[in-house]
Every structure is written in C-alpha cells, then in structure tokens.
Design goal:
Length: 440
Amino acid sequence: MDDFIAARSQMALSLGFHIIFSCIGMVMPFFMATSHYLWLRTKNPVYINITKAWSKGVAIFFATGAVSGTVLSFELGLLWPKFMEHAGPIFGMPFSLEGTAFFIEAIALGFFLYGWNRFHPWFHWFTGIVVGVSGLASGILVVSANGWMNSPSGFDYLNGQYLNIDPIKALFNDAWFSQALHMSIAAFVATGFAVAGIHAYMILRKRDVRFHLTAFKIAVVYASIAAILQPLSGDHSAKDVAHRQPAKLAAMEAHFKTGKRVPLIIGGLPDAQNEKVDYAIEIPGGLSFMINGDWNSEIKGLDQFAEQDRPPVLITHIAFQIMVGLGMFMMLLGIFYLFVVWKKKRWIEQKWLLWLFTAATPMGFIAVEAGWTVTEVGRQPWIIYGIMRTADAVTPMPGIAYSFYLYTAVYISLSVIVTFLLYRQIKMVGKLYGTSDANT
C-alpha cells in the first residue's frame, strides 16, 4: 500500500471509529440526566433503573472515546508533521480548551457514578448535566478545529510563512458555527435512533418490557426532535459551503458545468471523465433555488476549477446522497412518531412501529460517517483549504502501511470489546435492576 494512501486510510479509520464513540459520549449523558430528573420528580423506580443502566453505558463510551481520541492526537503528529508544524500554533486553542472540557467531564462523571446516596439528590443530578454539557462542548471545540481546516483564518500567509497569528479568530472561523450546529444535532439523531432501536428490539423480544418501553420513549423523543431540526441545519450548512467551498458543493451535487437554473440531482452515478451523471432524478432549478432562493440563479460547476484542485466527485456525491437520504427517512420517521404520540398512542407498542425503529438503529451513524466523508473528501486535495495540500503534509517516514494494519487490528478489537460489554449490560438489565415485568 502506498504510504500516502496508508496515512489517509489510517486517519479515516481512526476518525470513523472515534466519531461513533464521541457522538454517544456527547449525547447519552443528556438521556441519562432526563431519566434521572424524571425519577427525582416521580420516584418511579423504573426511571432510576434506566439512569443507572445508561450511566454504565456512558462510562464505557467515555473510556473508549478517551482511548480513541488519544490515538488520534498522536496520529496528527505522526502522520501529518508538516501540517502540525504550521497549523498547531494557530488552532492549538480549540484542542487545549477541548482538553479542559474533557477533564471537567471526567470529574463530573466520577461524581455521578460514585455519588449515589453521597450527594444531595439534585446536586447529584446536576453532575450528570455537567457531564453532558462538557462532552458537548468538547465535541464542538474539535469541530471548530476541523472548521478551521475548511475555512482557515486567524493568520496572514505570506511567502510560505504564517504571520500575525490570532488564535481567537482561528477558533471562531467562518465554518465553525455551521459545522458545530450540524454535527451536534447529528449526534443527537444518531445516538437517539440507535438507543431507541435497541430498546425497541428488546421490547419485541419481550425482555423487561416496562423498562425498555420507558427508555425507548425517552430516547425516541430526542431522536425525533433532532431529526426534524437536522434538515434546517443541513440547509444552512450547504449554503455556507456554497459560499466558502464552491468546489465541494459542486462535487456534492455532481455539478460539472457552470450555469443558471441548475437542477437538484437525486441519486445517480457521476461520470467524471465524461462530466455527466447517470441514472439520476433531476429537479429543474432545484439547486439554484436551494442555494440562492432563485430558480434561475447561477451556480459554479467543477469546470471553474483546475483539474488538480477538484475533489473526488464519485465518493463525495454518493456519500452526500447517503447522508441526505437517511436523514430524510429519519426526519419522516420522527414526524410520524410525534404524530403517533399526539393522535394514536395505542400504536406505540405495535410490532410494526417497533420494527421500524429497530431497522433505523444504525441509520444515524451511517449518515454521520457519510457526512464526515463529504466534509473530508470534499475538501481534497487540501488539508488546509487553499493553503496546504494533503500530499505536502504527510509524513516522509516509510512503512506507514504496517502502522495502518496494526491500528486496524486495534480498532476492530476495541469494537468487539465494546460490543460485548454493551451486549452483556443489556442482557443483565433485569438481573441488575430488578426490572422484569414480574417485579414491576
């Protein structure tokens, strides 16, 4: 394997695993705090059982997220030394602040896990809120660093030198808000549907039905509301990309020729060599309207960029279509669930509805992975957009391919361990918390 491909593959693998752990770590504490709040208000024992069960899941994903995040920090220096040499002093602030948020999260999680019957009940609940807020802040700060790569700011670039560095401006770059908003909502969507789907499956198997039905209702409300909000943040993000990174938008939409009244393409397979899209559904003027609010407005195509500066169209477009398609499905499912709660409560325990949510279990995380593929592949060939090419930032050290194989084995092992721990935790719910239907 070529060292450049190996370095990119290793980074993609590490990010692909870490993003799942970090999304769950960002969101699950809010689910946990919600069930804890409901127990404090109602004293219903099911809520405290859910809280304790979810807190163990939070601890598992906190530990795995810490490990995978630490690996990523080493990989930045190992695989991309030229990038870190120049970029580190500029956007080091988000990472240092992220470290602070991580330590706060760790302390608060320790208080929560070991604070039962030791703290005032409401203070104990508050420590759970701190876990969620600090975890969310940690994620936003990391996304801000990635936003800087897409929209570099906070420095002057003259004759290959990075001068007049302003870390605050780098932190609050032009991309940070749209990316952080979109990613934060995506984390709630992905985690919400995953948790709801697991509990829906356990209900279908008639395991501790009262426990799992209550947990399902908490998770699915978060998932549904977030899924409905996600297209709004996606629209804002797409318009922002059109302004800052028109080449990325063109690759996302497989838009080759600059022109007016540009159609919105649904599906299709881009043929970059012949600059066409096969098997696509086109909505005339749709892209022009979505980006500029004018059906006849002009949109830049890939023909406006030198061939060596164009992102890989096939991967970017397909990943974008997967993200949008799954996002729309989950939005419709979320709307339908809220309708069920409003008008058809008796449907909530129907098998067909539970199977729908069971089938949707992995969809949010598939959409997240596809979205990050769009973000990263769509920025190519740049690691710092318009400033430094990815090929110029990679390590000169030979033998990276062996490192890739090693890290692949590590992450697969870590995933197997996490899956086993979660499976055992779910299977032992009734034994640990006495939540079988006979006891409740």
